[in-house]
Design a protein that fits this description.
The chain is 15% helix and 46% strand. The protein has 107 residues and is mainly β. The protein has one domain: HesB-like domain (Hypothetical Protein Aq_1857, Chain: A, Sandwich). A hairpin with a 3-residue loop joins strand 2 and strand 3.
Length: 107
Amino acid sequence: MITLTPTAATAVERFIKGAAEPVAGLRIAISGGGCSGFQYGMSLEEAKNEDDLVVEVGAVTLLVDPLSAPLLEGVTVDYVESLTGSGFKFENPNASSTCACGSSFNA
C-alpha cells in the first residue's frame, strides 16, 4: 500500500524516539485543501482508531483512515534534506496533477 524509503523510515523513527508521549504510529491522511484540491497530513498518534488500516513498514507503524486509503494506494514517501529545507516528499501514482510545493495534489 504505502512505501517508506529507508531515509523516510529513519526520519520517522527519529521523530518517534523524540516524542514526549508514547506513539502508536504515524498517521498519514488526505484532506481537502491545498492549492490542488487534496493535501497530505502526517502526525504522530498516541492511539490507533478502531477503523484504521495498519501498515507495518519495518519498525514503523503507519495508521491510515478508510477514506484516505484509496488515495494513498501505491504512494512512496521519502524524506529529503537540502540547503533550502527538509521534509517529506510524496510520490503518488493516483495524482493527476500536483502543485509546485508538492504538498497537495488533484486526483
